[in-house]
Write a structure and sequence with these properties.
Number of helices: 21
GO biological process, one term: carbohydrate metabolic process
CATH architecture of one domain: Distorted Sandwich
Number of strands: 38
Helix content: 25-40%
CATH class of one domain: Mainly Beta
InterPro entries: 6-hairpin_glycosidase_sf, GH-type_carb-bd, GH92_a_mannosidase_put, GH92_N, Glyco_hydro_92, PNGase
Largest sheet: 9 strands, antiparallel
Protein name: Alpha-1,2-mannosidase, putative
GO molecular function: carbohydrate binding; peptide-N4-(N-acetyl-beta-glucosaminyl)asparagine amidase activity
CATH topology of one domain: Beta-galactosidase, Chain A, domain 5
Strand order of the largest sheet: 8-9-10-11-20-15-14-13-18
Distance between the termini: 43 Å
Radius of gyration: 26 Å
């Protein structure tokens, strides 16, 4: 049984969801989706909401500031295995690994307000009454109340249908979130309006505080209201300030009119910004906002038209495409003001300011997908990152809202920005970006900066490697490159290569030569006695276990998994470990290739995957975490490109139409973008550069609508007629009708193409195996 049939079976047996009124519910058997149905009908927002996928099912528009979604008690928000909702809160990030956001959980109740802890007043619900689709969510609570959510870019819109009662309440909980709440202020401004200011901190570890401002406007006056502070509820109170539990309740008489609608606007600037966003995007009915959100998503998804494959395959694909457009998020208000990383107010002029930067994850897949399908937004995102440097003095590593968290290691901002440059998104900003990147690559942030940057850069520049210093005290919150010196070295070297290529293009020849030389520093941690990369201590001595499956000094992985993270020079790395035969033998062992051929789905689930957070002590491919995302494409550089297709298609079986259908954390669209790119047959094999590796698409035809400002042809069609679980091997390829024998394309060549077509068959062929077929190493002559 092959990968396509396994996907279909997994969709029908394991998971899934039914289509009802254009919305998705889980679980049940799926009905077939007519070809003419809206693409939004193929999106299942519940995928990844169980087994630590950490996605959310609630309402958002593409890249919106607001993600209005239920929280069930899981540390990142919603977990499908739980059956109580504590509130519907405004801020969520798709697939993060630690608690973040969850600001202002709102819950409708009836009766007297006696509890102030949302863990005690939470409402039970059943998935049978739960529906979600792009831009909307609804659920029937077992209290007899129906809750419906939708969103604009900067507002969350809610509609509650109550039983007939004179005590229909809406609780606005300012003091409890998914992060650590430091202080909150609640104000009831009039008989329709509630305002809050919420200051919080956190994400895996404490960070500098940030403040979120909200204003909620109801569609009709409430009959009474009050606030709570701690356990004390005070009817008639108009204001409450607290460092603990804090909130407001408003009450309505629903004996005749049973529905209550409200719009909540968000701002990271100030209360005036929240009010402005409310005026700019509020004032419309719930139905009108929901309809517009659905149209927005349909327009976005319609840029990728996939044909062929079963319903389950198409559902997992379009659900991944949907999640790829959820972040980064708008950070500026309707008037362009935003809070910079210097905690001062700035105004974005000529661009939209974005925030939330999971760069260690997204630089490998999602940033390239957005460059291809959403280049205007991707340009603004890149400019926003440059503004972070200009506002705060340093580039980000993992940024949330208005602060740096320093989560993860290496230098991910460099390939993120060099990718934007290579994709033509930095016109007018090239030198500003380069200056920021050069400072980042050659220095270390000062002690009074919240950023850690390339923390081990002094030693790296002096000695060619970042040392692994076990149990070194952290000078700043977040992760430390010294804890993961071996993988930090590989990440630094990758970034040096990408910056060197940018420097060469811009005419900074001396810098280009210097960075190109540093890009070879991966060799400094190669231990010839083991044949693998290995951590070195401050004296330069190899340290930790010699067994590469037990190696220390690698972030969320082992030496086995990091050995392929040399995309800037795979030919050199292959020679280093003994040549193509050695590399192919090692790759076959790494992917359990013989087992894979016999049973790809079982190999993926039982050999590769060991648990959502089980990153260590393994000698096998981990398809659910970032270090290995490029690894399947290594075969393109070892003369066996058909094996890339085998591995990629096996890994795609891990994506199913189920709450457990996300492989690992989504990490702001990273895994989803991997699925999308791998499914259409083009993948960024040199992140930070302009190289796209080729493999067999899983669809017979994919039509991409592209922005003519960046892709003059305006469209690209990728075909692989007859592709299936059996006929999955590329026999030949053509670009615009002409034969093509290489296993990669460049962005420049993509811009000139109308069509990329593959002929496929049941057996591997000689396609892509010639000496010049593989993606070349980055170097002065490239």
């Amino acid at each position: 049984m092959g990968w396509t049939q396994r996907l279909r079976d997994a969709g029908m047996v394991v998971a899934t969801t039914i289509l009802l009124g254009g919305s998705l519910a889980v679980p049940a058997a799926r009905a077939a989706v007519p070809p003419s149905a809206p693409l939004t009908d193929l999106v299942n927002p519940f995928i990844g909401t169980e087994n630590e996928g950490n996605t959310y099912p609630g309402a958002a528009v593409p890249f919106g500031m607001v993600q209005f979604s239920p929280d069930t008690g899981h540390n990142t928000g919603y977990d499908y295995s739980q059956n109580h909702i504590r509130g519907f809160s405004l801020v969520h990030l798709s697939g993060v690994g630690c608690g973040l956001g969850g600001d202002l959980p709102v819950l409708p109740t009836t009766g007297d307000v006696t509890e102030t802890d949302y863990a005690k007043y939470e409402a039970e619900f059943s998935h049978d009454s739960e529906r979600a689709s792009p831009g909307s969510y609804r659920v029937d609570l077992k209290t007899g109340i129906k809750a419906e959510l939708t969103a604009t870019a900067r507002t969350g819109v809610q509609r509650y249908t109550f039983p007939a009662t004179d005590k229909a309440n809406v609780l606005l909980n300012a003091g409890q979130s998914l992060h650590r709440t430091i202080s909150t202020k609640v104000e009831i401004l009039d008989n329709r309006t509630v305002r809050t200011a919420i200051t919080g901190s956190g994400f895996c570890q404490d960070t500098k505080p940030y403040t979120v401002y909200t204003v909620t406007r109801f569609d009709r006056p409430f009959t009474t209201s009050g606030t709570w502070n701690g356990d004390s509820v005070t009817e008639g109170s108009k204001e409450s300030v607290s460092a603990g539990r804090n909130g407001a309740f408003v009450r309505f008489d629903t004996t005749k009119d049973r529905t209550v609608e409200a719009t909540t606007a968000l701002s990271y600037v100030d209360a005036r910004g929240a009010a402005l966003n409310l005026r700019s995007e509020g004032g419309r009915s719930f139905d009108a906002v929901r309809s517009r959100a659905h149209r927005t998503w349909e327009d976005r998804l319609d840029d990728v038209r996939a044909q062929g494959g079963g319903d389950t395959l198409r559902r997992t694909f379009y659900s991944s495409l949907y999640r790829s457009f959820l972040a980064p998020n708008i950070g500026s208000d309707a008037d362009g003001r935003y809070t910079g990383w210097d905690q001062r107010v700035h105004r974005a002029q000529g661009f939209t300011y974005y925030q939330n930067w999971s760069l260690w994850d997204t630089y490998r897949t999602q940033s390239q997908l957005l460059s291809l399908l959403a280049p205007r937004e991707a340009r603004d995102m890149a400019i926003s990152v440059i503004k972070i440097d200009e506002d705060s003095g340093w580039l980000p590593k993992w940024g949330y809202g208005t602060v740096e968290t320093n989560i993860m290691t290496g230098d991910p901002v460099t390939p993120f920005l060099t990718n934007a440059y290579q994709q033509g998104l930095l016109n007018g900003y090239e030198e500003r970006a380069y200056r920021a990147l050069k400072k980042n690559a050659d220095g270390v942030p000062p002690a009074d900066s919240p950023a850690v940057g390339r923390e081990a850069n002094k030693e790296y520049i002096a000695n060619g490697f970042a040392p692994y210093v076990k149990d070194r005290p952290h000078a700043k919150p977040g992760d430390s490159d010294y804890d993961h010196g071996a993988s930090a070295t590989l990440e630094y070297a990758l970034s040096d290569a990408m910056l060197g290529a940018m420097a060469r293009d811009l005419g900074h020849d001396a810098d280009a030569a210097r960075y190109a030389a540093r890009s070879q520093n991966y060799r400094k941690i190669y231990d010839g006695s083991t044949g693998f990369f290995r951590a070195r201590d401050a004296s330069g001595t190899f340290t930790g276990p010699a067994d590469p499956a037990l190696s220390e000094g690698f972030h969320e992985g082992t030496s086995w998994q990091y050995q392929w993270l040399v995309p800037q020079d795979l030919p050199g790395m292959v020679d280093l470990i003994g040549g193509k035969q050695t590399a192919n033998d090692r790759l076959d062992s790494f992917f359990a290739y013989e087992q894979l051929l016999k049973d790809p789905a079982k190999t993926a689930r039982e050999v590769w995957v060991n648990g959502p957070y089980d990153y260590y002590n393994a000698d096998k491919y981990n398809p659910q975490n970032e270090p290995d995302l490029i690894a399947p494409y290594t075969y393109l550089s070892t003369g066996q490109p058909w094996k890339t297709t085998d591995v990629v298609h096996a890994a795609l079986t891990l994506f199913t139409d189920a709450p457990t259908g996300m492989t690992g954390n989504d990490d702001l669209g990273t895994m989803s973008a991997w699925n999308v790119l791998s499914s259409i047959g083009i993948f960024p094999v040199q992140p930070g550069y302009d190289t796209w590796g080729l493999s067999t698409p899983v669809f017979e035809r994919v039509d991409l609508t592209l922005d003519r400002r960046y892709y003059p042809r305006g469209a690209l069609t990728i075909t692989a007629m007859g592709t299936s679980d059996r006929d999955r091997y590329i026999q030949s390829a053509k670009v615009d009708g002409s034969s093509y024998g290489r296993t990669y394309l460049t962005t420049e060549s993509l811009r000139g193409l109308r069509s990329l077509s593959f002929t496929v068959g049941a057996e591997p062929s000689g396609w892509g195996t010639s000496a010049d077929a593989a993606p070349p190493a980055l170097g002065p002559t490239r």
